[in-house]
Amino acid sequence: MAVRLFEARDHAVSYQKYRFSPPENLQSVIFSYLEEKKVDPLRLAVDVGCGSGQSTRVLAARFEKVVGTDISEAQIEAAKQAASFPNVSYHVCPAEELPFADGSVDLVTAFAAAHWFDMPKFMKEVDRVLRPHGCVALSTYSTNFSMHYKDCSERLTEIFTETQDLLFKYADEKVNLVIAEYKEVFESVPFPDKKRVTQILDKIPMSVSGVIGFFQSFSMYQAFLRSNPEGAKSLLQKTEQRFLETMGVCSNETQVEIWMRNACVLGCKGP
């Protein structure tokens, strides 16, 4: 069964502002796989569960046409309002009902989204829409983040992890797929030619306020916010203050690095 947690307008705004594009090393893994499998020409990519479109736009330079899909009208509206490319468009639809002809798609992607889908139905759609030798790439960041600034990285990472652990109390059970680094997602891919790549390390520069915004974009924070608005806001206010005190700075625009590890499930449809 699919889970719908990202449909509120405020959540879409937060997603657009604070979620980042798929990082460089993750992109490299995906595009290297396409080269390995000799996917050519690159006509149509479909980015499923695209949210506010950060991941969709990354595909624009390599494909003739890119379509981002999401079940949330608010997310798609946010994607449409962002600066984009003439070969990118967006469509509101469930991941399990893709509006594409059989055998018409060269690449199906889902970045930090596939765990929310009804996996058997989604994989059936992937198999239907992919052309022979087309590929699927489903990625997620792991829950193993670290935060880096000068000589206080270890303490900052402890604070980050403590906040994340508190939010896990409000996590949907589907987040267990993320914790397991998409092992079950890999097993559900219907193609014999498949692999799962883990520990793809990327370093993301962002401000302290950006880190707090990143927390705000989490589905589990949004669940906490609905359950206890004051408690949720207080948690992030205190987290930000702890970050600043640890760093010995006053401005929440001070830049840090978040080190994140991605897992990526890759598959290639047969002839």
Q: Which blocks of ≥5 consecutive residues have pLDDT under 50?
A: 3-8
Give me the number of helical elements.
11
Give me the secondary-structure category.
Answer: alpha/beta
Radius of gyration, taken over Cα atoms and rounded to an integer in Å: 19 Å
Largest sheet: 8 strands, mixed
Helix and strand pattern: HHEHEHEEHEEHHHEHHHE
Distance between the termini: 30 Å
Fraction of residues in H or I helices: 40-55%
Mean pLDDT: 93
Number of strands: 8
Shape: elongated
* Strand percentage: 15-25%
3D architecture notes:
Strand 4, helix 5 and strand 5 form a beta-alpha-beta unit. The longest helix has 19 residues. It is built from eleven helices and eight strands. Helix 1 runs antiparallel to helix 9 and helix 9 runs antiparallel to helix 11. Strands 1, 2, 3, 4, 5, 6, 7 and 8 form an eight-stranded mixed β-sheet that branches. The protein is of the alpha/beta class. It starts with 8 loop residues before the first helix and ends with a strand. The chain is elongated, with a radius of gyration of 19 Å. The N terminus is likely disordered. 41% of the residues lie in helices and 24% in strands.
